[in-house]
Specification:
By secondary structure, the protein is mainly α. Helices cover 77% and strands 0% of the residues.
Length: 74
């Protein structure tokens, strides 16, 4: 595997991991009140926004990678 193939593979893997992390965070925040703990509602809203931003970013990266660096080409 060439250097560029390793780099593209890394980009795919990190985007997928970030998407998974964001989905897990959103699930925890939305479905498990115990996950909120002693945080204020401001913290809760901030955490929701951050998780959604991470999900959107990861999905955008996956879409862009698919457009310019399809996995079969890596």
């Amino acid at each position: 595997m060439s250097y560029s193939q390793h780099a593209i593979s890394y980009l795919w893997q990190t985007a997928r991991a970030d998407k998974s992390k964001a989905r897990m965070s959103l699930s925890l925040l939305l479905e498990n009140g115990a996950g909120i703990g002693d945080h204020s509602t401001g913290d809760f809203h901030k955490n929701l926004d951050e998780a959604l931003d991470m999900l959107v970013d990861a999905e955008d990266r996956l879409e862009t990678l698919g457009k310019y660096f399809p996995e079969g080409d890596a």
